[in-house]
Amino acid sequence: MGDSDVVEEHHTKESLQKSLRGVKPSRIIGVYFRLVSPKRVDEILSTQGSFAYGGRYNPDGEFGALYLGETEKLCKAERQTKSKNSLLISQIMGKIKVSYGKILDLTDPETLKKLKIKKAELLSEEKDGGWVLTWAIARLAYQLGFEGILSPSITGTENNLVIFDKYVDSKKVKIISKSEKRAQKK
């Protein structure tokens, strides 16, 4: 087995793929949020940025993903953890309605048990090599036809819904509203 077949010490691509095939997809219908800069307001449902720069559940240059938060508060908290500057610029908060039937739910303890993954493994930082596992999961989920992933937020509270680029369409995801929010100092 080559190095590229080993994802983590106790995970291989084959073991993850076999486990993922046994996971029943979840249905997600509800309202989620996305925070973007004012210059990106017309691209609030775009996956171009994630395609170019990657994210926890999409390796850069392979496929894009739309990252959403369960609440406005979560979106702001995540933005503040990513910002090096304590004074954030104004942001546009998008309120987005979603309806998906094939989501990989990584917040479900039974799913994590089937995949032999601990929640903490999903929260590792990129610089610590933590995205090797989440990228492997995302690649396989993408290939197996999952529309996206529900995962614990990197903040450790609440959850993110990550929709894979090929499933971002007007039948499944709709902008309800956009409003300017002034980010606060921590």
Protein topology:
Layout: E1 6-8, E2 11-12, H1 13-21, E3 26-36, H2 48-53, E4 65-69, H3 72-82, E5 91-105, H4 109-115, H5 119-122, H6 131-143, E6 148-152, E7 159-164, E8 173-181
Parallel strand pairs: 5-6
Antiparallel strand pairs: 1-2, 3-5, 4-7, 5-8, 6-7
Keywords for this entry:
186 residues, Diphtheria Toxin, domain 1, two-stranded antiparallel sheet, alpha+beta, 6-stranded mixed sheet
Major sheet summary line: 6 strands, mixed
The end-to-end span amounts to: 48 Å
CATH architecture call: Alpha-Beta Complex
Structural category is alpha+beta
What is the helical fraction, as a range of percent?
25-40%
Report the portion of residues in β strands.
25-35%
> What's the tally of helices?
6
CATH class: Alpha Beta
From the spread of the alpha carbons, the general shape counts as: globular
The tally of strands reads 8
Which regions have little confidence, pLDDT < 50, spanning 5+ residues? none
CATH topology: Diphtheria Toxin, domain 1
Summarize model confidence as the mean pLDDT: 85
Order of helices and strands: EEHEHEHEHHHEEE
Radius of gyration computed on alpha carbons:
16 Å
Count up the domains. Answer: 1
